[in-house]
Design brief:
Blueprint: H1 3-6, E1 7-10, H2 19-28, E2 33-38, H3 53-62, E3 66-72, H4 86-102, E4 110-113, H5 124-145, E5 148-152, H6 165-175, E6 180-185, H7 186-191, H8 196-203, E7 207-212, H9 231-240, E8 247-249, H10 260-275
Parallel strand pairs: 1-2, 1-8, 2-3, 4-5, 5-6, 6-7, 7-8
Length: about 280
């Protein structure tokens, strides 16, 4: 793995800090790249009239930082491309289109989208149908903008539509389109009882972003070393497949938000030790 050019961190963890603080923190941590989250209060469509996209992009570039992927917030905000509510579903598509259409300003061509969530007492097939319809529209937008739309695998506790690689594959095959790829999160991989290798065997070069977090039995995205994942194995898989895309360190547990830099420093330190061969996670 090329640490300098592949590893990135996400501003979502810094949601209780200003974006200026986040950029300065990225530099203090010795990181060159970010996964830009469309989260409040940093960059959402809700502040669209007050946030100048080009100005924000310039701030990032002036800090010497690259945006490797854009991930609109789809958990805390009312965004659900699989909603049975037609208004919410269409509004969710419109919001994600905002990030796709503005990705070029950040010299970025990869936007991550979640499959959406179903109402528990509604049929899974209905939510999947709406998910695919929404992705079809978003893929057309991505094609028009010269970007790639990346379907994120998420665990059952978040969606239920992509609990494993087979479910992800069904959606990818149904939607089609050369501008539809995959972002793989290791927490969801492990929660589905699979390995990162299973995903590369199934999808290969369709995998454009890999998000690595540690996790526990409750599927929290933890600092590396605090959970039960075999992080060394993940790195070995990336090397085995010659993966050269972004490797995003995601730590999303609520307790991390108060001390984002401290916890990211711990995760980065753990990753560096693994890459040096100092530690093996079993």
């Amino acid at each position: 793995m090329d640490f300098e050019n592949q590893v990135c961190i996400n501003n979502m963890t810094y949601r209780r800090y200003s974006f200026h603080y986040f950029l300065e923190s990225v530099k203090r941590l010795g990181i060159k790249n970010i996964e830009l989250s469309g989260c409040h209060p940093h960059y959402t469509i809700y502040e669209g009239e007050q946030i100048n996209v080009n100005s924000l992009a310039k701030k990032i570039k002036n800090a010497g930082i690259r945006v490797l992927a854009i991930e609109p917030e789809q958990n805390f905000l009312p965004v659900n491309i699989a909603s049975h509510n037609e208004y919410l579903r269409k509004e969710s598509v419109r919001q994600i289109q905002f990030y796709i259409e503005n990705a070029a300003a950040f010299d970025c061509d990869q936007v991550i989208v979640y499959p959406g969530k179903k109402i528990m007492d509604y049929p899974n097939a209905e939510a999947k149908k709406y998910c695919c319809e929404s992705l079809y529209e978003l893929e057309k937008t991505a094609a028009r903008c010269g970007a790639s739309l990346l379907l994120q695998n998420v665990s059952r506790c978040i969606s239920g539509l992509t609990p494993d690689s087979a479910a992800v594959g069904e959606i990818i095959d149904e939607v089609g389109g050369k501008n539809l790829g995959i972002s793989v999160n290791t927490c969801a991989v492990c929660a589905g009882g699979e390995t990162l290798d299973n995903y590369f065997e199934r999808f290969g070069e369709k995998i454009k972003v890999v998000q690595i977090s540690d996790s526990d039995d409750e599927d929290e995205q933890l600092v590396l070393g605090e959970g039960n994942q075999d992080i060394r194995q993940h790195i070995d898989v990336l090397n085995k497949w010659g993966y050269e895309g972004p490797v995003a360190l995601e730590i999303t547990m609520e307790e991390y938000a108060d001390g984002a830099e401290k916890f990211y420093a711990e995760s980065i330190s753990a990753l560096k030790k693994i890459l040096k061969g100092d530690v093996r996670y079993e």
